[in-house]
Every structure is written in C-alpha cells, then in structure tokens.
C-alpha cells in the first residue's frame, strides 16, 4: 500500500468520508422532515432554502467552520421537527 508510510493521511481521508456521510444524512433527514410540512408553499420555501444552504457550503474546507455548520443544521432540523410535532398535537 503506497499510503502505509503516511498513516495520518489515511485517517484524514476516512474522517472526511465519515463527515461527508454525516452531512448527507442530515440533509436527507431534513428533506424527509420538510416533506411533512402541510403547506405546499412552505414546503417549497424550506426545500429551496435547505438546498441553497447545503450547496453554498459544499466547498467549505475549514474544519471548525464545518463543525459549526453541522451543529447549525442539526439545530434547524430539531426546530423544524419540534414545530411539526406541535402542529400535529
């Protein structure tokens, strides 16, 4: 293996892969949650907003900034899920 001399590079690649999977999972969950929004106009607005935000940040490389964006995305997702739960009750 040509990378065996560089064990940290393999860890970095694995870490980036896992981080990407986590981000894609948040995005998918957000889109699934948005599908539950009853109003079609609100659904479209939220879908467009989520898509634009994730695309805008797609090329980010600063790890601290990426971690902050993951936290913000999770917070937005939780708020949306809480709002939907309240609307159903």
TrEMBL record:
It comes from the Eukaryota. Keywords: Mitochondrion, Transit peptide. It holds the Pfam family Complex1_LYR. Residues 22-79 form the Complex 1 LYR protein domain. Its main location: mitochondrion. Belongs to the complex I LYR family. This is LYR motif-containing protein 2.
């Amino acid at each position: 293996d040509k990378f065996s001399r560089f064990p940290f590079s393999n860890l970095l690649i694995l870490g980036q892969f896992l981080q990407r999977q986590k981000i894609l999972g948040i995005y998918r969950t957000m889109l699934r949650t948005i599908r539950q929004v009853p109003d079609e106009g609100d659904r479209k607005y939220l879908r467009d907003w989520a898509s634009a935000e994730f695309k805008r940040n797609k090329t980010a490389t600063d790890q601290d900034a990426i971690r902050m964006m993951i936290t913000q995305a999770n917070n937005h997702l939780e708020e949306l899920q809480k709002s939907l739960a309240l609307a159903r009750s």
